[in-house]
Write a structure and sequence with these properties.
The complex is a heterodimer of chains A (83) and B (490).
Chain A lengths: L2 H13 L18 H15 L10 H4 L2 H18 L1
Helix pairs in contact in A: 1-2, 1-4
Chain B lengths: L3 H11 L4 E5 L2 E4 H17 L7 E5 L5 H11 L3 E5 L5 H11 L3 E4 L4 H7 L8 E4 L21 E7 L7 E6 H14 L7 E4 L6 H13 L2 E4 L5 H10 L4 E4 L1 H7 L16 E4 L6 H10 L4 E6 L8 E3 L13 E2 L3 E6 L12 E7 L10 H7 E2 L2 E10 L5 E6 L4 E3 L2 E3 L1 H9 L4 E10 L5 E9 L7 H11 L8 E5 L17
Parallel strand pairs in B: 1-10, 3-4, 3-5, 5-6, 9-10, 9-11, 11-12, 12-13, 24-25
Antiparallel strand pairs in B: 1-2, 7-8, 13-14, 14-15, 16-17, 17-19, 18-19, 19-20, 21-22, 23-24
The chains are: A mainly alpha (83), B alpha/beta (490).
């Protein structure tokens, strides 16, 4: 399963909502709370085997499905470049 | 008494180029906030808004909403800041209940507004809250506001049904702001971060305190730890007023907050629900140089008590002594004072007491009586007059700092096909966090799944009203009069 499909499935479970607009900020519209963000962090780390620094727990990185996918891809590429 | 919008004018005259409100890249000086809110007021007056009218704001946190808020006050009207987490039904309830003359809607809330009003909205004037707000010059604005004139209606959950509007006068805002600023020793150097929507009294108190002393309000739309830490450092924030749920996220092991240092931060004030001792200890070790003020209040009376920082260790668990001009007493079920250290209902008399609920004389009469506010909160006073808050007496639940009426969630659950009865209770874990649990009794024909129940609630209720856990049972315990015995369903 690709990154987007996995993120979509997790967010659907977390919010219990269908047909989520991938660009919408889920924290601003109240579908996720800051406490959900910490579950989201645990999911991203374990599923994609990346480590998220505290400074990276931001709306820009984790606010919408699009931004999560972008963040995961960017972080994985950076990790590969180091190797 | 100086009305809040006059305070803005006076701070703008003294320090026109200082920052009044900032939010990310948006920065408003005192002169800009004053001039632009003046223009909004003139526009509202040109469109027929009169003293006594109510004008709404439905917006997430940004700089523009403060321009609209002061514009409404300058036009002589009362503002109604609608909780940005409200879904369609709550939004319609507030708009209809207070009969808004005009409503500012921010882009992020447009889709909820549109789906709430797929048929025409009866509010005369709906104004997009973005970029340049409309103007209309040369309108005479009301000279000033009388102390007992309505300045705002603040909606909050009541013990039954939909949110109730609490009326707030100019006098209350003035007194609460001046006394808070004196206790917290606010000054023009202060930069106060605002993390709660302006639909909550605590956020309003912070905005007006910043304006009174000529400091800066830093609007913070995201409560994610990475964003908060960045803002605290970049904006050199000096004061935080937040609920325990905010601190729970910041103190999480994955957050960068505990390892960071915040040399500008001078004080922290905490209100909204009981702050667990362990969490307070953790926070104090992260911020050793900060002063901590624990406060207690209800929206019906803004601020009741505060614990002076030097009493933090001597009076563990207490929310302190009354604000100046406030008298706190504890009474039994018949309204008679109880002996010291005995538990009873907290009654607030003196300053800050609201004239009552908007449009609801019945609840106003039962809550505001004998010259006092019967808070519905349980507490006790020790021999030295320090108050200890012990929860609600009327079944309301406090979760994530929000006051939740179980009936409000239950009535939403009972709308579902297959659900015949429901009970909603608060479950508190070992860390002191309270979440909602729903117990459902189904009629057997086609019981919904747990996921369907959550989806149903998510579509209709603000997030803090959606139950975290759901349990199906065959019956609910009842009292002799047939009411659900919530205490017995945990």
């Amino acid at each position: 399963m690709n990154v987007r499909a996995q993120v979509e499935r997790f967010i659907t479970e977390l919010t219990n909502a269908d047909n989520i607009d991938p660009a919408v900020n889920l924290f601003e519209n109240g579908q996720l709370t800051s406490l959900d963000a910490l579950d989201l962090v645990a999911f991203v780390e374990s599923t994609f085997e990346i480590s998220i620094q505290g400074d990276d727990i931001t709306v820009d990185n984790l606010g919408s499905i699009d931004s999560i996918v972008g963040y995961v891809e960017k972080t994985k590429q950076a990790a590969q470049a180091v190797q | 008494m100086i009305p809040t919008h006059e305070l803005l004018r006076s701070s703008a005259a003294k320090r026109p180029t200082d920052e009044a409100v900032v939010c990310g890249d948006a920065r408003l000086t005192y002169a800009e906030l004053d001039d632009r809110s003046e223009a909004v007021a003139q526009y509202l007056v040109s469109r027929g808004v009169k003293p006594g009218d109510r004008v709404g704001i439905f917006s997430s946190k940004n700089a523009e909403e403060t321009i609209a808020l002061f514009g409404i006050l300058k036009a002589g009207a009362a503002f109604v800041h609608i909780n940005p987490y409200y879904r369609e039904e709550h939004l319609r309830h507030v708009v209809d209940d207070c009969g808004l003359k005009a409503l500012f809607v921010d882009g992020s809330r447009e889709s909820i507004f549109d789906s709430a009003y797929f048929e025409r909205c009866h509010v005369d004037l709906v104004i997009p809250l973005a970029g340049k707000l409309p103007t209309a010059g040369d309108q005479a604005l009301p000279k000033t506001a009388a102390p007992d004139e309505l300045a705002a209606i603040v909606y909050t959950s009541g013990s039954t049904g939909m949110p109730k509007g609490i009326m707030v006068t100019h006098q209350i805002f003035h007194d609460a702001t001046t006394y808070s600023a004196a206790i917290l020793r606010n000054d023009p150097e202060d930069r106060l971060i605002s993390v709660t929507p302006l639909s909550f009294d605590g956020a309003l108190s912070q905005l007006f305190t910043a304006i009174l002393v000529g400091g800066t309000l830093v609007q913070q739309p995201s409560a994610l730890p990475g964003d908060v830490v960045t803002t605290l450092l970049a904006e050199r924030v000096t004061g935080i007023h937040a609920m325990p749920s905010f601190w729970r996220t910041l103190l999480h092991p994955r957050s960068s907050f505990p390892a960071e240092r915040f040399p500008s931060l001078r004080y922290v004030s905490i209100i909204g629900e009981a702050m667990p001792d362990k969490m307070l200890g953790q926070l104090r070790s992260v911020l050793p140089a900060c002063e901590f003020f624990l406060m207690y209040g209800t929206t019906e009376a803004f601020r009741s008590t505060y614990l002076p920082p030097h009493d933090l260790d001597r009076k563990k668990g207490s929310v302190g002594i009354p604000f100046p001009g406030v008298e706190i007493s504890i009474v039994d079920d018949d309204g008679n004072p109880v002996d010291p250290s005995e538990v009873g209902t907290i009654v607030h008399r003196g300053s800050f007491v609201s004239p009552g609920y908007w449009n609801d004389p019945c609840h106003t009469q039962s809550t505001f009586r004998d010259g006092g506010l019967f808070t519905g909160d349980l507490g006790r006073l020790d021999e030295e007059g320090y108050l200890y808050f012990l929860g609600r007496s009327d079944g309301l639940i406090k979760t994530m700092g929000f006051r939740v009426s179980p009936e409000e969630v239950e009535s939403c659950l009972c709308e579902m096909t297959g659900v015949s009865e429901s009970a909603v209770v608060g479950i508190t874990d070992t860390d002191g966090a309270t979440t909602l649990k729903a117990i459902l009794v189904c009629d057997g024909s086609s019981p919904p799944s747990e996921r369907e129940v959550r989806l149903h609630c998510r579509e209709r209720l603000p997030h803090y009203l959606v139950p975290t856990s759901i349990e199906f049972r065959s019956a609910l315990p009842r009292t002799a009069t047939g009411k659900t015995r919530r205490a017995a369903v945990h």
